[in-house]
Write a structure and sequence with these properties.
seven-stranded parallel beta sheet; TIM Barrel; two-stranded antiparallel ribbon; globular; single chain
Amino acid sequence: MEQRKLGSQGLSVSAMGLGCMGMTYAYGTANESEAIATIHRALELGVNFLDTAEVYGPYTNERLVGRALQGRREGVVVATKFGFRFGDDGVHGVNGTPENVRRVAHESLERLGIDTIDLYYQHRRDPAVPIEETIGAMKELVREGKVRFLGLSEVSAETLRRANAVHPISALQSEYSLWERQVEKNILPAVRELGIGFVPYSPLGRGFLTGTINVNALGDNDARKNHPRFSAENAEKNQRIVDVVRRVAQECSATPAQVALAWVLSRGSDVVPIPGTKRVRYLEENIGALEIQLTPEQLSALERLHQQTRGERYTPEMMKLVER
């Protein structure tokens, strides 16, 4: 599989990664054996970039990835994240203190069953802690060999520049897709100015862009029920986006998911999307996007779809954690 570079410090990964979150968290029930089979199939097909986080579960996702990697660690780039504060009833805000940076890293290493985290992200910035202090603690983990490369998620261009001045940042992870392109205004230019790789999460719009989501059938334990774009009113309007994607897919003899991913992949050689799935068949479908070359006419048809998006991507409380 094609390899793409993230940053200037030597991190190279497959052109498409695998988001593991949904295997244990956020999108309803999951089957562990099928999830592990999906990770194994990804590795067989050349996908060597796995994305997880402490908060997914919490903790259960890292453990699952760790079980899947037993005897298969060589050549795999494992990315995980820290940054939330937990209480007995779930997430209670963010925590970017140096103490938390170190504690979570060591706990993540144990859950994953590995000696080094390849890419360690701050999941969300803590406004109460200067980014220089957080990155300074992450930098120490690099010096100790516990972490190889550093990343940030959903931060502004200003935060990115301040962080990169303390230690080179290899990757920025933010939401990016045909229906979400806010990063293009200020953040992507800063990423490229600084030579940082870009890792889009939810490149399929949390499944909406595949054209297979019935918002009225989402289970009570599916986090998308609380996302404004998945409300009945907004989903009906957002269906117009899917209609165009489906039409382009028919022209390409592809699926809407493959077209949506091919568009993200076309945005630059420094872009590595991490579509999530917990099923082998969808994994294989997603990887097929790497073979699709969209024509100028098709790219033009897709270019302005984001202007039709209705609804914010998170609840107001969650959006407070996203820098723009």
